Structures are given as structure tokens and as C-alpha cells.
């Protein structure tokens, strides 16, 4: 997955047509978001301790 795709995803620029044409990339984005959320949560807990 390229940085440009991630950047567009974070800006909300991926159209429904693009998402329909690239379902495998959407799956990667969802997994990446879960990983980032988990890391952020663990990092926040670590900082608070």
C-alpha cells in the first residue's frame, strides 16, 4: 500500500467507485487502522503509567 493511498484515505478522498474497484486495499486500510489504534492505546496506557 502506498503513502498516497493512505494519505487520500485519511483525507476522505477515496470515492465509493474507487473503494468498489479496490476492495483488497480497503481491507488493508482497515487492518492498518486497527493496528494503529492498538498501538496508540498501548502507548497512551504506557505514558499514563
Structural features, described:
With 49 residues, the protein is mainly α. The termini are far apart. The protein is built from three helices and no strands. It has helices spanning 3-11, 16-21, 23-48. 84% of the residues lie in helices and 0% in strands.
Features:
single chain; 49 residues; mainly alpha; elongated
What would a concise description of this structure say?
It is built from 3 helices and no strands. The chain is mainly alpha-helical. The model has no long low-confidence stretch (mean pLDDT 75).
Task: Give the secondary structure arrangement, pairings included.
Blueprint: H1 3-11, H2 16-21, H3 23-48
Counted by DSSP, the helix tally is 3
* Shape category: elongated
What percent of the residues sit in helical stretches (DSSP H or I)?
Answer: over 70%
Strand composition percent:
under 5%
Radius of gyration: 14 Å
Major beta sheet, specifics?
Answer: none
Gap between N and C termini: 34 Å
Uncertain stretches: none
Topology order in helix (H) and strand (E) letters? HHH
Structural class assignment? mainly alpha
Query: What's the mean pLDDT score?
Result: 75
* Number of DSSP strand runs: 0
